[in-house]
Amino acid sequence: MDTSSHVITHIQAFHADKVDSQCFPEVLENIIENLKGNNLDVKEVLADAGYSSVPVLQALVDHRIEGYIPNPSGYKTGREGFTYDRDNDRYTCSQGKHLVFKYVRMKGEHPHKVYKTGVRDCKNCPSRNTRANPAGVKSLEDSMGKDLYDQMYRRMQTGRGRKMKRLRSSTVEPVLGTLVNYTAMKQVNTKGMALANKCLIMAAVAYNLKKLVKRCVAKPRKRVSTTNRQALSPPNRQWSPGTYTSTEHSDTKPQQVWKMAG
């Protein structure tokens, strides 16, 4: 949705076995196509931590879009007691031993790089009992997209990043609440993705039409005061004094009234 006008730009249903981050790349492509028809470009994207993943961050980079997505709770800004050498892609512990890249390990669908020391390196280490694994070596794991996570972390720590986080909470969440509570989107009782998408689209259309009506309300017409006789009288006509006599009582004196002349 658009944060400035609160208009829903795209809505789509997915199977329940998919998490938010798996749906995001497809949704982003559809949003770009929808706005391209109106000569609009997507410059920034706001989302919660549930959308944070390597494919999502990479999709933003590929489309040159600046994203504001908090990193997941498992993200670590640094490793206590270790220094990372970006040029050689290795870690160095407090004892000066190097943890070099060994292999890639899959955690679900997310690849991680594994760094390890040699057995001889940690043989006489004073912190072996606290930092080395049972095999007697030190081991660290980093996501393959750690650079993307680091970049997003630095962006979210800026003043604009904190502002965007508050903006998302104050604009997106109320829209979701409206769709769930007032357009019967808490549960879609249909069969098939096609019918589910129809229900979502109709709910989004109803919501957007309501926003459009509020923006296109006609201005109230200015009322003219009835006390101004001159303004209400027809043009080129003047009020002039006259007299009338009551026909019910012959002894009634003529009374002066105002009549319209012309």
Overview of the structural elements:
The protein has 262 residues and is an alpha+beta fold. The chain is 35% helix and 19% strand. The strands form 3 sheets. A 5-stranded antiparallel β-sheet has the order 3-4-5-6-7, with no helix packed on it. Strands 1-2 form a two-stranded parallel sheet. It has a two-stranded antiparallel sheet with strand order 8-9. It is elongated. The two termini are 64 Å apart. The model has no long low-confidence stretch (mean pLDDT 81).
At a glance:
This protein has 262 residues and is an alpha+beta fold. The chain is built from 7 helices and 9 strands, in the order H-E-H-E-E-E-E-E-H-E-H-H-H-H-E-E.
Unreliable residue runs = none
Helix % is: 25-40%
What is the succession of H and E elements? HEHEEEEEHEHHHHEE
What is the distance, rounded to the nearest whole angstrom, between the alpha carbons of the first and last residues?
64 Å
Oligomer: single chain
Q: Describe the biggest sheet?
A: 5 strands, antiparallel
Shape: elongated
Structural class: alpha+beta
Q: How much strand? A: 15-25%
Rg is 36 Å
Number of helices: 7
User: How many beta-strand elements?
Assistant: 9
Strand order of the largest sheet: 3-4-5-6-7
* Average of the residue pLDDT scores: 81
